[in-house]
Amino acid sequence: MKKIKTSLNLPQTKFSMQANLSVKETKILKKWKKNKLYDHINSRNKKNKCFFLYDGPPYANGDIHIGHAVNKILKDIILKSKRMSGFFAPYVPCWDCHGLPIEQKVEQIFKKKSIEENKKKFRIECHKYVLKQVYRQKKDFMRLGVLADWKNINLTMDYHNQANTIHVLSQIIKKGYIYRDLKPIYWCFQCQSSLAEAEIEYQTKNSCSIYVLFSIQDKTFLKNKFFTEKSKKKKKCTNISIIIFTTTPWTLPTCQAIAINPNLYYQLIKIKKKYYLCEEKSAIRLFKINNIQNWKIKGYIKGKNLKNLNCIHPFLNIVVPIILSSHVSNELGTGAVHMSPDHGYEDFVACKKYNIKPNQTVNARGLYNTPLFSILNNLHIFKAENIILKLLENKRKIFFSEIIEHSYPHCWRHKKPVIYRATPQWFIKISNLTLKNKILKKIKQVNWIPKWGKTKMKKMLKNRPDWCISRQRTWGIPIPLFIHKKTGQLHPDTIRIMKKIEKKIQLYGYIIWWQSTTQTWLKENADMYEKINDVLDVWFESGASHQLKIYKNNTYQASNHIADLYLEGSDQHRGWFMSSLITSVIVQNNAPYKTVLTHGFVINEYGQKMSKSLKNNQKPKDIIQKWGADILRLWTAYTNYTNDISISHKILQQISEHYRRIRNTIRFLFSNLFDFNSSIHIVNNKNLLLLDQWILKTTYSYQKKIIKNYSIYHFHDVVQKIINFCSVKLGSCYLELIKDRLYTTYSDSIARRSGQTAIFYILHYLIRWIAPILSFTAEEAWNYFKENTKISIFTETWFKKIQLPLKKIHHNTFFWKKIFTIRNEVNKFIEQEKATKYICNSLEIILILYVDKNLFKILLSFNTELKFIFLVSETQLCRYSHAPKIAYKSNSIKNLKITIKKSNKIKCPRCWHYSKKNRFIKNIMNPCYRCLENINKKENQHIFL
C-alpha cells in the first residue's frame, strides 16, 4: 500500500491550515516597513491617473475605538482596490489636534486658575499630549494593515495647516460672509464655550411645563374692546392676565417681552371672577387638560391689535410689552410666549425688531447675575428653577403645571443639557440666500452614498442658523482680528494684516499671535483697536483644510482641491462634510468632494451604539489579539456598512468560518502545485482541458463582478462573490471533479498540468481579489508562489484575462450550466440512496440516465469521461421511454430519470474506481488498467475532465 501511495500525486504545501494571524500579521508588518512598501507603491504609480481620498481627521485623544477601525479599514480597502485598478492612490492620514476633548484632558493636569495664569505652558502641555496620542493611534491604525504615508502624517496643528486656516478665514472675510454679533448660541456649562450645531445631540429630558400669568397693566384698552360703556361688568373687570407657556422656568428672570402671533385670534375668557387672555384653539386644549368646565368667552381680538399692550412681570418689578412675531403658533401652549433674547434664537430675532437687546443675565458657568432679583445671584439656573416655581406659587401666578418628556439639546461630549446664551461671537452668514442657494446647488452635484445623504444635507442646510465659528477657549487656532473699541467694526486693513499674520504663522506657528500685542501688528491708532482672543471652531479648521495640498514633493496635484472621495461616519453630515462644503463653496465656488460615502455606527448585540462615553466600547486591539486583524477587516467588509454595524463574539465566530473557507481553498490550490513550475509546466491555453477552460472563463466572469463591486464600494457583495466562488464554483464543482485527475494521472501528463495551470491562474485571480480586504492573508499567500520575485501583492494590478480558444458548444455557458444542473439532480438522488445505506460511496455506483434525444446528444459528447462528471465508476445512457416506474424523476430537468445499481466489479486500491480489468503487478496490488498506464507514465487522452 505504501507503493500505491507514492505513485499518487497527493497534495502537499507549507501554507498552513492554522492561520495564527496575530503572530503572522506582525511579521508581515515588519516586512512592509523594511521594504518601504508604501513608498515603493507610490513611486511606481505616480504617473498614473490619480484617485484622491481625503482623510477626515479623528481627534488625537485616547485609544482608537471600533468605529475608528471601521473607518480606516474601509478607506484602506478602497485605496488598495484602486491601486489594483492601476490608480495612483496616495493616502496621508490626518488628525484633529485642537478642540475640547484634548483641552479637557490637559485641564485635569492643570488647576483651572493656573490655566488663566499660564496659558503658554498650558498650550505646550496640550501640544505634548497631542503628539503622544497621535503616536498611540498611529500605531493602532498600522496594526490594522492600513498602508499609508505614516512618516508624513498631517496634523491640524502643523504650521502650514495653521497658516492655511487663517488664509481661508481671510478669504471668507474678504467676500463679506463673516460678522460679529451679540446673539444666542448653544452654550455648554461643562465646556464653558459656545458650541456649533455639529456638537449638539438631542436626548429625551423631563421638564416642568408651566402656564404662567402675566397681569395686563392697561386694562382700560381691553375693557373698551370687550364691554360697552354702560356695562356693569366693565367696572368689575379688574383682574385680567395673559397666559404664557414655557418649559424653561429658569428663563423667566430674563424675560423682556411677550410675543403673540399677529394673525391668530385671542379670546377674553372669564373663569369665576377672573379674566384670561388666550389664543382661541389653545384655550380649548388648555381647559380640557386642566379639567375646567365652567368658562365663558367674552369676546375675540386679533393678535395684531394687542401690540405694545403692557404686562406686569409675575415676580420682577418690571413691565414687559406685548410684541408681534409670526413664529408663535397655536400647536403647543397658549399662543403667547415670553421672550428672552438672551436665551432663544427666535426670541432674539423677534425682540431685535423692537430694539430689545440681550442683557446677559447668565454668565459662562450658568450663574445668575441680576440686579433686579438678587436672591438668584450666583445660583445656577437649573438649581434655581425650584425657587422660581415656589415664588410663582406663592404669588398665585401659575395657571397650570405638569411634567413633560421632550427632546432637548445636549452637548455631545458631556451628554449634559445645553442652553442658548447670548454672547458676542463671530458668525458665517449661512442665512445669505445667494450663498445658501449656491451651496444647495453644489449638494445636488455631489454623488452621495447612500442616496439619502443628499436629502439629509439639503434639509440640514435649509434649517441651520448662521455658523458660530468662535470659541472662548485656550487651545486652538486664533481668530487674528482687531475691532474698533467704540464701533466694534473690523479694522479697515484687516485682509492685509491677516496676510502678514499668515506668513508669520507659517514660519513660527500661532504662538506668534498669542505673544503679540495690538501694537505688534498695528503701527497707527493701535490704542483705538482691541485684539480678539477667541479661537476658531475645530470644524472650521478641519473644514478649511481642503485648500491645503497635503502631499509633499509634488506627488499629488489636485485640480481645484477637489477630492474624489470623503468617507466618514454618518454623524459627519452635520460636521466635517458640512464645514468643508460651506468653506469650499465660499472660497472656490465648488464642493470639496466628488463623492461622499458614509458608514453607520457600530452597535453591540443589544443594538446599543458603542462609544467611549457609554463605556461599552470594544477595543480593536483586543479583537486583533484574539482573532487577528484580517478577521476584523473581513467583518468590516462583510457587513453592509451603510447601516449600523453589529459586532459580537457570535458574529466574529461566523466571520472566522467564512475566513476559514477562503483560506482552506487557497491552501488546497497551493497543495496541488507542489511540483509545478510556471516557466516549464504551463499548458498552452488551446490545449487546456475543456473543464479547465470553463473554470477560467467563469473565474474571469467573477472578477469582472468583483472589480465592479469594489469600484462602487459594495464590499459586502465582493465578499459574498468570493465566498460563493470558493464554496460553489470551486469546492462543489471544479475541484471535486479534478481531484481524480490531479491525484491519479502521471505527474507530467497534459491532463494534470492542464489542471495545475488552471489552479495557478485561479490563485493569481483569487489572491488579488482578497488582497484589499484580507491583506495579511493575501500577502502570506503571495509569498508561496515559488517563482514570485515581486516584493508584495500590493505592487500588482488585477490579473489579466486568459485568452481562451474561440467559443464552441463545449465552451459556452449554457452547455456547462446544463451539465451542472444534471449533476445536482444526480447528487440529490445519490444522497437519498446513501441515507438508505444501499450505498456508502458514489464510486460504488453504476449510474443509469434515461434521457431524451437532446440530453443524450449533450451527455454522449463526454464519451468515457461522463462518469467523472458524476463521480461514479460507470455511466449508462438509455432512452427516456425505457425508464422503469421506480426511476427517480427530475423536477427541474425535463425528460430526465435516474436509477442506480451497485457495482459488482473490483475496487482499484489506487483510484478507488470499480473496474472490469484488474491485474497483478509486482509490489502493487491489483491496480486498474487506467492506473497501470499512469504508473507507467503513459498519457491517457482527456478532453473534458
From TrEMBL:
ATP binds at residue 612. It is found in: Cytoplasm. L-isoleucyl-5'-AMP binds at residue 568. A motif ('KMSKS' region) lies at residues 609-613. Residues 27-648 form the Aminoacyl-tRNA synthetase class Ia domain. SUPFAM superfamilies: Anticodon-binding domain of a subclass of class I aminoacyl-tRNA synthetases (SSF47323), Nucleotidylyl transferase (SSF52374), ValRS/IleRS/LeuRS editing domain (SSF50677). It catalyses: tRNA(Ile) + L-isoleucine + ATP = L-isoleucyl-tRNA(Ile) + AMP + diphosphate. GO terms for molecular function: aminoacyl-tRNA deacylase activity; ATP binding; isoleucine-tRNA ligase activity; tRNA binding; zinc ion binding. PANTHER family: ISOLEUCINE--TRNA LIGASE, MITOCHONDRIAL, SOLEUCYL-TRNA SYNTHETASE. Binds 1 zinc ion per subunit. A motif ('HIGH' region) lies at residues 58-68. IleRS has two distinct active sites: one for aminoacylation and one for editing. The misactivated valine is translocated from the active site to the editing site, which sterically excludes the correctly activated isoleucine. The single editing site contains two valyl binding pockets, one specific for each substrate (Val-AMP or Val-tRNA(Ile)). Zn(2+) binds at residues 908, 911, 928, 931. Its cofactor is Zn(2+). Its main location: cytoplasm. The keyword RNA-binding does not apply. PROSITE patterns: AA_TRNA_LIGASE_I. This is Isoleucine--tRNA ligase. Belongs to the class-I aminoacyl-tRNA synthetase family. IleS type 1 subfamily. GO terms for biological process: isoleucyl-tRNA aminoacylation. Monomer. GO terms for cellular component: cytosol. It comes from the Bacteria. Catalyzes the attachment of isoleucine to tRNA(Ile). As IleRS can inadvertently accommodate and process structurally similar amino acids such as valine, to avoid such errors it has two additional distinct tRNA(Ile)-dependent editing activities. One activity is designated as 'pretransfer' editing and involves the hydrolysis of activated Val-AMP. The other activity is designated 'posttransfer' editing and involves deacylation of mischarged Val-tRNA(Ile).
